[in-house]
Amino acid sequence: MHENSSKSSTICAIATAQGGAIGIIRVSGTDAVSIVNSIFSKDISQAKGYTMHYGDIKAQKENGEEGKIIDSVIVLVCRTPHSYTGEDTVEISCHGSSYILQSILAELMTAGCVLAKPGEYTQRAFMNGKMDLSQAEAVADLIASQNEAQHRVAMQQMRGGISTKLHELRDKLLHLTSLMELELDFSDHEDLEFADRSELRTLAENINNEIKRLAASFSNGNAIKNGIPVAIIGAPNVGKSTLLNALLHDDRAIVSDIQGTTRDLIEDTITINGYLFRFIDTAGIRNTNDTIEQMGIERSLKAAEKAQIIILLADEKSPFPDIQEKEHQHIIYVTNKSDKLKSDHQNPHSALEISALHGIGLDKLEERLLAAAASTNDTGTDEVIITNQRHKQALDTAAADIQRAMQSMHMGLSGDLISEDLRLCINHLSDILGGTITTNEVLGNIFKNFCVGK
Ligand code: GDP
């Protein structure tokens, strides 16, 4: 059980979205069974875990008169520790009317429940040792998942993919630390020290490589979770907004004949063949004195830096802007307004010729996008990948720790110093799983993004 765990109130919340045929209210905490029992027509006070009970939920007695029936429901009882939160839990399945759901919620609160905060059930599950922090975070990702790849990575994480990997790394680090301590114990025997250190270095290198691989998987993981960033870059009026609209199939960006109308970045996502793309429409690149437009251009160049795929756009008048492909980046050269191109038109970069306005060649562009996505992103990998910025930061810090330790080994520095860096490395990896001391601030940040009822 987590150190922060303490006896807490019994919470209740509606767990289902509005408008369904069935609505579910979750109650969790020490008094869950007795509270529900006080408003239920059957006696469930001694009910065993994993049992279901059919009966009526009744309003409290008023002026000595029997309260009215709110609904006929099915009640599921789970007993500690065999529940999602690890506490006694009761789930009430009723008819999906929001009036019924709100009335039952009100009765539960009158009977002693408090309303759950966002993510509080999952937070309790974490506190009670039912899952680690990375698994708890995956619950939110799973609920938000919208395609196969997002579902797969969230599921992998929820089922302990990252946890297992990190436990393996921790075991290796502990092994390394114990070897280090052995070296300290035998430090009188100078000849022993050097024999051991080459083995230690190999072990450390191995750990460093694994941490680095995991951290590097964030680029892929982030693309799966938030979309592969695609920047459309070109001079004003080449048709960037028109192209974005055509790709997104709606009128998201402003299209106009006046140069420099797209001053803000507009972002939107679309799934093509299972790949999620996040398009960034950017202000036209040209020399300008307009400061607001200038800011837009700077931002678009920044966006280009972060983009994995850049669609460089030219038309019959404006050539391609001069942008160099960075490592892990793909530039797709596209000439727009094919309807206006002269028959003797030169085709620099063997660009794809399209008409964003008339929808010509867009299928070919989608094919190019998919090919670029497939070469930089692996949506089908079974390897553990991370999708969370918090995990990425912790891994980067842990990598710096182990690299310091390696450096110290290389320089023949004292074992104490090396052990200290190894310990820090273990702690930073443990942070991902929630460690033993996770601050309330960290927990607050994680669970505030959950929905109420989860
Ligand atoms: P941006 O400044 O690069 O975002 O350009 P816009 O998307 O605002 O387009 C500028 C103008 O070019 C608009 O009048 C569009 O209708 C026009 N345009 C865009 N695509 C095409 C095309 O394929 N053919 C023709 N003839 N005009 C286009």
Write up this protein:
By secondary structure, the protein is α/β, with parallel strands linked by helices. It has helices at residues 32-37, 98-110, 120-127, 133-144, 148-158, 161-185, 190-226, 240-248, 291-306, 362-376, 389-410, 415-433, 440-447; strands spanning 11-14, 22-28, 51-58, 69-78, 89-95, 114-115, 228-234, 266-272, 275-281, 309-314, 330-335, 352-353. The chain has a six-stranded mixed beta sheet. Helix 6 packs antiparallel against helix 7 (190-226), helix 6 (161-185) packs antiparallel against helix 12 (415-433) and helix 7 packs antiparallel against helix 11 (389-410). The longest helix has 37 residues, at 190-226. It is flat. The two termini are 20 Å apart. The structure holds guanosine-5'-diphosphate.
Indicate the mean pLDDT: 85
Q: Write down how many β-strands occur, each being a DSSP E stretch of 2 or more residues.
A: 12
Sequence of strands across the biggest β-sheet = 3-4-5-2-1-6
Provide the structure class. alpha/beta
Poorly predicted tracts of residues: 251-265
Tell me the number of helical segments per DSSP (H or I, 4 or more residues long): 13
General shape: flat
Q: What portion of the residues fall into strands of 2 or more residues? A: 15-25%
The CA-CA distance between the termini, in Å, is: 20 Å
Radius of gyration: 29 Å
Largest sheet: 6 strands, mixed
User: Can you list the ligands bound to this structure?
Assistant: guanosine-5'-diphosphate
Order of helices and strands: EEHEEEHEHHHHHEHEEHEEEHHHH
Please bin the fraction of helical residues: 40-55%
